[in-house]
Amino acid sequence: MADSKLKVAALKYENEKENAPKVVAAGTGYVAQKILEVALANGITVYHDDSAATLLTKLDVGQEIPPELYQIVVDIYIHLMKVSEEKKRQFAPKEKTDTVVNTR
Q1: Which residues, 6 or more positions from 81, have their beta carbon under 8 angstroms from its beta carbon?
Q2: Total domains, the chain
Q3: What percent of the chain has pLDDT over 70?
Q4: Whole-prediction pTM value?
Q5: Cβ of 59: how many Cβ atoms within 10 Å?
Q6: CA dist., res. 50 & res. 35, Å (int)
Q7: What are the φ and ψ backbone dihedral angles of 22, each rounded to 5 degrees?
Q8: Which CATH number covers residue 62?
Q9: Predicted confidence (pLDDT) per residue in 5-49, tens digit
Q10: Phi, psi dihedrals of residue 2, rounded to the nearest 5°
């Protein structure tokens, strides 16, 4: 049974096409659990932050992140950079640019 309090938002950013990252999936409870499962099954990095997930799940799928939430994206990017550096030190894997934010 899915945690009804779980909130997940998946972001994607295509530098040449978009001004800011977009929400490509978002949900709570069962939907959030499924988004998280797909992300983990595909090796997508997961960033855990209750506040970020709460704010990002309020956006519509397909919506670019508004400027007032850019600091959240900066925090996620910093986390991704750290994870990427750790992985490079371990075994230099192929990098992914998709991100999922959840509340765990």
Answers
A1: none
A2: 1
A3: 86
A4: 0.77
A5: 17
A6: 16
A7: -115, 155
A8: 3.40.1690.10
A9: 999 999 999 988 889 999 999 999 999 999 999 999 998 989 999
A10: -75, 145
